[in-house]
Design goal:
Rossmann fold, alpha/beta, nine-stranded mixed beta sheet, 16 helices, single chain
Length: 503
């Protein structure tokens, strides 16, 4: 199998590259043999970037327009911006996992005065890639105008829209403060990329599997001081390389992907009706299993300091709350290829049946149980009232991506007088999701046992981390991983088509 191709895109106005095609970042990264050398490279390049600003006039407190003009003259001298260095950490980690990498600096294609330079080269780079990873700064909790120019460029080109559909997206963001809007920047960009048909991932389980690289750099060239932030950037690089390898696998399923439709919240029967139409109209592309949480009695989370309460094999229910229906449906949540959570939003609380929020709380043990849903595709369905503002599409993305999943775009319909407007588009989107999930599931089954299983890392939960070290036996965790991999290998033997020429 050819290595997956990952395009790193830097979206900072401070990027030093003088023009399209002149980046040497990939060559630099290919010469770095270990993590310690990478961190040395990041510090050296950050220091050189700061020196460049001082040389351009910052040391003499010159006006910024003069500094800016001098920086343009120094463009070919060494030194990388903070956003570029976050990208470097991610790309190096992806290459370590077997990805072929390229780099595109957007400042070389979208000059400050407007317009676009070397449009064909940028288009060729985007179409070359199996996945794209964008790194840029935070501007008031949002991305840079360079990143927006890229989105507009893709949206204006039917060729690019078609060529990028089904490819993978990940992101890194750099803010001037520790909580400087990095996560909102990543979330907004994730929504935009999913809407253009890409799939989305966060970072990996070593950095808690959230939204991507979140780095802090309060001044020019200071990102090397943010060890945790650089770890999150490396995590998204590793995550993208892993998922890309699954999507690139030549393995194929014998039958249809297994879909788990979860009715989490309903109003006027619209959600139940939508699921029935999924079963009726998409039976040729999915084997659909339904769990209707609106008919179950589910208590709210007790906020245990240790979650899951017990360490055990996947098939055992591990939430401390035992006196409700949560344990009854636990085994029905395992071994699916795509999750289709369905939520109906209503401005009339009396019309709502079920509780989406309790489901999210009470499946925390699924995530903390070493990511049982790891690498599973999620295709959220939201039905909302027209004219209202519903946050469910974004909330479902931000909650479910934390399960180490791969996200499909939210599919949204509108409820008007008991009818769902846009249900045909929802069904069409789910048909596309079936195709994506079949590739992802086949790759996951074919590679069972080849890469380390995701393990929940309780970053920030000191009590939980201490308790884990004291009480959780390494032997039991090894048994869990071995059993999960054994189950996947058994499923692979049952569900994959034989490949000519060996695996």
């Amino acid at each position: 199998m050819k290595p997956p191709k990952l395009l790193g895109i830097s979206a900072s106005p401070r990027n030093p590259w003088p023009g399209p095609g002149e980046s040497t970042l990939v060559a630099d990264l290919s010469a770095i043999g270990d993590k310690a050398s990478l961190l040395e490279y990041i510090k050296r390049q950050g220091d050189l970037c700061l020196e460049k600003y001082l040389k351009a006039g910052r040391a003499e407190r010159k006006g910024f327009l003069e500094i800016y003009a001098n920086l343009r003259k120094l463009a070919k001298s060494p030194g990388l911006s903070n956003s570029e260095l976050a990208l470097a950490a991610a790309l190096w980690s992806a290459a370590e996992r077997g990805a072929e990498i390229r780099h595109v600096p957007l400042s070389a294609h979208f000059p400050a005065q407007g317009g676009i330079v070397e449009e064909g080269l940028l288009r060729e780079s985007l179409l070359w890639a199996d996945g794209i990873l964008i790194s840029g700064p935070v501007y008031f909790g949002d991305r840079s105008s360079l990143a927006k120019s890229l989105l507009d460029f893709i949206a204006s080109s039917p060729e690019l829209q078609g060529g990028l559909r089904g490819k993978l997206y990940g992101g890194c963001s750099v803010g001037a403060k520790r909580n400087g809007g990095q996560e909102t920047t990543l979330i907004y960009q994730l929504v935009d990329m999913l809407e253009m048909g890409l799939l989305g991932v966060g970072n990996d389980s070593e950095t808690t599997a959230q939204y991507g690289g979140t780095c802090h750099a309060g001044d020019v060239g200071t990102i090397s001081r943010d060890a945790l932030g650089l770890e999150t950037a490396m995590g998204v690089g590793r995550r993208m390389a892993t998922v890309l390898s699954l999507l690139k696998s030549p393995a194929r399923l014998k039958g249809k992907p297994r879909a788990l439709a979860l009715l989490l919240q309903d109003a006027e029967g619209a959600g139940a009706g939508m699921i029935e139409k999924i079963r009726l109209h998409l039976g040729d592309v999915f084997d659909v299993h339904v769990v209707d949480y609106t008919e179950l009695s589910i208590r709210r989370c007790m906020a245990c300091d240790i979650c899951p309460a017990d360490v055990d094999l996947d098939e055992f229910y591990r939430c401390l709350v035992k006196n409700d229906a949560g344990g009854d449906v636990h085994r029905e949540l395992l071994d699916h290829d795509v999750l289709i959570p369905v939520v109906v939003s209503s401005r009339n609380p009396a019309a709502i049946k079920g509780d989406y929020q309790k489901f999210m709380e009470r499946t925390r043990y699924i995530r903390r149980g070493d990511y049982i849903w790891s690498d599973t595709l999620v295709a959220p369905v939201v039905i909302q009232e027209p004219g209202g503002v519903s946050t469910y599409p974004i909330r479902m993305l931000t909650s479910l991506i934390r399960h180490h999943t791969v996200m499909f775009r939210p599919l949204v319909g509108h409820l008007a007088q008991g009818a769902v407007i846009g249900e045909e588009q929802i069904l069409e989107g789910l048909r596309e999701a079936a195709e994506r999930s079949a590739k992802l599931a086949a790759g996951r089954l074919a590679r069972a046992g080849e890469h380390a299983a995701a393990s929940y890392n309780p970053v920030g939960y000191v009590l939980s981390a201490d308790k884990t070290r004291e009480d959780m036996q390494l032997k039991k965790r090894e048994e869990i991983v071995a059993q999960r991999e054994s189950r996947l290998r058994k499923l692979a033997a049952e569900r994959l088509l034989p490949q000519s020429g060996g695996k």
